Model the fold of this input.
Amino acid sequence: MPTLPDADLPDHEVVVDESEPVAPSRRRFFAMGASAVATLAASAAIDAQTGRPRGKPVAKPLPVGAKPNASADWKDPVLRLVRRITMGLEPGEVALARQKGFAGYLNYQLNFSAIDDSAVDALVAARFPLLSQTSAQLKTADGGEVYNQLADAAVFRAMFSKRQLKERMVEFWTDHFNSLYDKIGYLKAADDRTVIRQHALGKFPDMLRASAESAAMLGYLDQASSRKPTPNQNYAREIMELHTLGVDGGYTQNDVAQLSRILTGWSYDGNGVFAFNRSFHDFTAKTFLGVDFPAMPSNATAAQFKSEGDLAITMLVNHPNTARYIATKMARWLLAHEPSAAVVDATAAAYLATGGDIKAMIRTILTGTNLMASPAKYKRPFHLMVSSLRAMAIEVTNIRSTRQRLDAMDMSPFYWEQPDGYPDRISWWSGLTSQRWNWANYISTQNSATNVRLNSTAIFRTPQDTADGVVNQIAVRLFGNEMPASLKTSLLAYLRGGTYTDTRVRETIALAASSHQFQWY
Amino acid sequence: MHDDTLDTGCSEYRSLARRDFLIRGAGFGIAALVPSWLPNVVLAQSSSTRDIIISVFLSGGTDGMSLVVPFGDPDYYTGRPNIAVARPDAAGSGPKAVALDNFFGFSPGMAPLMPAYTAGDLLVAHATGSVDTSRSHFDAQRYIEVGKPQDLNLSTGWLGRHLATVTPLRSSAPLRALGLTSGLPTTLVGGPKTLPISNPANFRIDGSSTTANARTQFLAANYAQTIDPVSANALDTTNTIALLQTINFSGYTTQNGAVYPNTGFGNSLKSSAALIKADVGVEAIHAFLGGWDTHTLQGNIPGVDGQGMHNRMLELSSSLAAFYADVIQGTTANGVTVVVISEFGRNARENGDKGTDHGRGNVAFAMGKKINGGRVLTDRWPGLARENLESGQDLRVTMDHRDILAEIVQNRLGNSNLSTVFPDYTPRNRGVTKP
Done:
């Protein structure tokens, strides 16, 4: 195993020959450890292959006295990409990414429909059969079982799907278009299928329109019962504040009121299918975001009434503030809690230039330069769980009891109450430290033929059934071989601090998965 | 329609708010001590007279008119022909309400709280609630926990903001507040040194006890190398684990012969008592007791309809009564105040299933030596005649629950930053606390 320099975050002093034209030969060299120079140069070359203009490096040196987070140890741009666009490192995926290279692997994951995922699809269909049923069929099903299958499948797909970037974006959009299972029940199953998964890597306007006609959303934000003359403003507010323009997106309280009138009638029928209720609709004149919506004749068709809402939604998706809001949120998700203005600007421009194409925005965000300049992000509990399952190659017979460990980590799928979705902030999650450590302990000790199993012998005690061999496998599997020397030393010390047994090996694996280095991605 | 957006706060509150403003204007250099999300605040000074607070949330929307029966209102009986609790002076030997005054009484299931009430340490407030009219469990609960109705973007809780704006009871305390929950309850979000600990007697590193110390040392050293808040939270966690190990929870002996029911909630309060008696600097504890969503066969009295509601009331009241005898009448370094609230009450009239659906006005309780108790506090009982009901169905909310909380925060918890704890609200002084 190669040893890695225990370097601090690189000092981003850039040496650029400005006399050279922008071309693959134009490379940046960073003043840092020799091994890292090569990888960074490689990332710059990778960016150049994409033909995208590169701005100045956006990373700032750490403040004096600050402790680095794990990204200081991450030298390889391809590995950084795998961390960001998958649910966790896994040797097969890492090998595939290395083989394809940075741009090749990103393209491969973006072009998800070309990835054969039929094996996982077949398993999901067999194990979670309720999820392929329509809302009309599900309304008589046991709501608890629908929930369990939906939540189990979320973990199962995140762990096993080869379309890993899509799974990352499914998680993102599930929060963006949050709804609470407790309030809307089985309707979430159709929403997950036809809104979130259908459009996760598609066009944002399509996803918003699908969401606006999803019974789950209409029920969750009380739109379905909103009617003249005193409409419910819940959805009208949130579609602007949370789904499109953002809270500072330039709308007023009067716009909320006007949009709530425009949207009256957007409802669903007894089968959980979108249905416009013309008797609810306020067809008098309105003005929304400065645009007049003239009064309609009372005998206009339902389709004519509904077209007012369609027009309002078109105004929202075409709005530059929507481009900026979505760009900011995606850059936060994929790159850094505080993305640079330059990245946000470029991503918003990509939105406007492509009609809200999510893939185009991702390409803009995830350049090698941007990634190498970004600090690591803190895994949320769902991400921590799935990345552990992947790194440890957990054998899954029944995921349910394992998935239910998310409850103890306070991140039960589809159970965030507020419409803003589970937070993506370190401070929100970091108080649940012992819960994370106990998760690692739990999964490392599982050895059940009926639920889940860590095959410690095959996965960690092979090829070398020694302390060195186990820690080497931890380095490979959990850290893509970018494990700091200090962690290696302390893990070895722990493993050698007691009799070498399978229990001690599993404890060491749990400590590695509990370490702060494994909490970042 | 009743308007609870009061702008008639008492002069005490106004003068305090004014003083806050002046001190802020003087530029006290305390910004570095408070979280960056807070506006400038005055850190209230620690004081030995400050109380520890136990905050209990009755989740599910408890039927306040079963806990505290308005037997003096005849419409209570006409609206609830099957589930009403009989007047204290009703004929016959069946279960009856226990009179608190000439209008209200405890259901039999609440009777264990009579000693606290008659001692003047338990205040019952009725027809309280939120200005938000939502009858959705999660909206109503969230707004109460956050301490500001209809703000979907405020993510910190009122108790968390209190903790962030008051100096710690003990500067060295590794743990200032805990939720007796698996995740951090919204009420506590934003509080420093605040952790979710579902069972303090069992807060530990899972796995072999033989290696627990070595593994904890490994993790403490490992997390010392990363950034805050991840590093600080890990340190708080390991320190708290060490702290809690010094407390003998299983061998805890109550005072005054108190016996906690052996239920989840009873054990939660017993663990809280052990923590408080250990005097380790914990100053706030938040707990939940659920099971109040009684849409069918409510069972308010023994022997009727499965007596589910009766049993639940008994669990609440006997747990609180044990805590009263053990802690509030016992020996503690700091005083202790308990508050009990729920997200909403239930319909004035019973439904066709001998249950009640989601309503509005409800009871709340405050208990402590410095609580001005022994009475039922109302802001004019709004009455249960149909024309007096909100939306024709519910007991009106005549008192914002924040009035009760704010007075406790200011007078018992020593924090005058009420505009931070309860943003955009001017509480009205209701005389909840003793001078």
Observations:
- Chain A touches chain B through 49 residues (CB under 8 Å).
- The beta strands of chain A are 11-15, 29-31, 266-268, 274-276, 286-288, 291-293, 395-396, 452-453.
